[in-house]
Sequence to fold (361 residues):
Amino acid sequence: MKNLRLPSYLVLLALGLAPMSFVACQKAKSTTAAQKDDTSVAIQTAPVKEETRTESVFTSGLISSDIEARLSFKTGGIIDKIYVKEGQKVNQGQLLATLNLTEINAQVLQARQSYEKAERDLQRVKGLYADTAATLEQLQNVTTAQEVARQNLTIAQFNQNYSQLRATTSGTVLKKLMNEGELASPGAQVLYVAATGQQNWVVRVGVSDKDWAKLSIGDKAKVTLDAYPNDAFEGTVTELAQAADPQNKLYEIEVQVKPGNKRFAPGLFARAEIIPNESHTYSIIPIEALVEGNGQQAFVYVVSADKHTVKKLPVRVAFFDNQRAMIASGLEGIKEVVTAGASFLTEGADVAVMNDSDTSK
Fold:
């Protein structure tokens, strides 16, 4: 068997081409890496911080009294006398107004006379029945008539008593709606009286179901009034509605306000910041880290473990504080989120982290 020997010029040609092939391979790899760097999105990240705080509820309403009475006569008639004026202080039980009692007194007298006659008839028939001169049916009839007459007298006396208005609480006459000599129909409002002591001022406001769930009786509040723009008043939640208003779907709450040395009046506009007793721990990130927000739902991007790609995570936003987003859930165990460049990213995108600390090196 013959040994095959390559011509010397072919060996030299092969040796000359080997370095050139190695250089070409290296250039191809460099070109691929450069192309990859060109497609990477430059981003910046920010640390995720944690903070324990309460989420205040902000609302507004009108100052009013916690005890209000819109006084009216039970029966109709001519107003004979009104003894008070608007703004006047009154005491509980004080006589405020009366109707002309001419007609009402006549009705009481008529009812009393009818009752007295029915009583006499009853006694007479009882005697006759004892002597067997009257039947049982006759006795039953006059007994019924006497009872009806007695009830009519009670009604007339009741109407007579409620032909005058007395203060149901100590406070102030806020409004006089009718004057002397006017005809007041039954139930028509004549006087509006409200308690105006230090402990009687409240703000009644409506809140959403989400805010209602955060609150409880005894929560503290800070109340400000347009009438006193430089003052803040202490408040406490005293009532929480257990059903929503069917018209506006809001839950009414009552905040008791301490006026201090200031003068309050019903109808003053008030703003309230209610601080729930319950606190929560939130993850805090810059607002620009959020993408694709919809209500309380949003997404953020975080750098993957390989340091070159990103992952898209859903988060739930509790509320915003200036330029910070308070995240209720979704960032557990996450140390950093993408801020600058987040709006240009997609799931798994190649990135190049360009934080200030990195670029300064």
